[in-house]
Structure formats: C-alpha cells, structure tokens
Amino acid sequence: MPVFRAAGAPPPLRIPVTRTLIVAGALASRDFQDVHHDPEAARARGTPDIFMNILTTNGLVGRYVTDWAGPGSVLRRLAIRLGAPNYPGDELTLTGTVAAVEGSTARVRIVGRNSLGRHVTGEATVELGSSARRTPPGPSESPRSAPRSRRTP
Predict the structure, then answer these.
(1) Which of 16, 73, 97, 140 is the most exposed place for a label (fewest CB within 10 A)?
(2) How far apart are CA 120 and CA 111, in angstroms?
(3) Residue 153's pLDDT is what?
C-alpha cells in the first residue's frame, strides 16, 4: 500500500492577490461578471474594488493540496466556503491540517486568510501515488483540469 510522500501538515502558501490574478482567474473560469474585472462597476455595487471569484479560489486551494500531496496525486473531492473577499494588493495565506489518513487517501482541512480575515475554509480528499487512477474518467466524470463545456443543439 502506498505511503504519503508528504509528511505532516502542508506548509503555508502565501499568494499575492494581484489585479492580474483576479482578472485572469475570472477569464480562465469564464466568469465575466463585471465585479471581477471592472473597478468602477465593482464600486457601483458597493465594494471598494474588483474581487476574486470562487472558481479562482477553488483552483488555488486545489493547487495547494496537490502541491503538498506530490506527483501522481489525485484530488478526489474539494468543498470550500467563502468568507472575506480577496481584493487586489492583499495576500492570501493558505494553511492546512491533515484531518484523517486512510491507506493512501487523506482528508485535509484548509483555511485561507487575508488582511480582512478568513477568505476560504474547506476540506479536500486527495489520493496519492500508484493507487491514484491512471485511466481516463468515465462518462459521468470529468478530469479536474478540463473545463466542462456547454453544448447547444
């Protein structure tokens, strides 16, 4: 049975929250809401500036867990909840604790903080090494890195 390459809790990851990161994350996730790229529109809606969308945060949390878990790891489940917004010029610090380990699968609790408080909390289930599936997903699943496409008739 494989053993986790990663020992102990994931180390903290500090991510500068730049205007470019916020806009690029929104574009990459096809989220064209103006509050993620237009500062005037964001202010008109009552926020001091543009802010990061949940899909960008989700991707950063996924990266945090899989970077810790190592090559060949597969993120099986990720559930997050947003709190304080991420504005440009701030820093997001992700920290994690291992909640449980069963064989080659770990559950990791994640907290991401910025200067306003908790930006994100959540839990990930990650499978490591050779026990992680090496075959393509079935028809009801999609790979975590591939975007889901919308098809119109």
Answers:
(1) 140
(2) 6
(3) 44
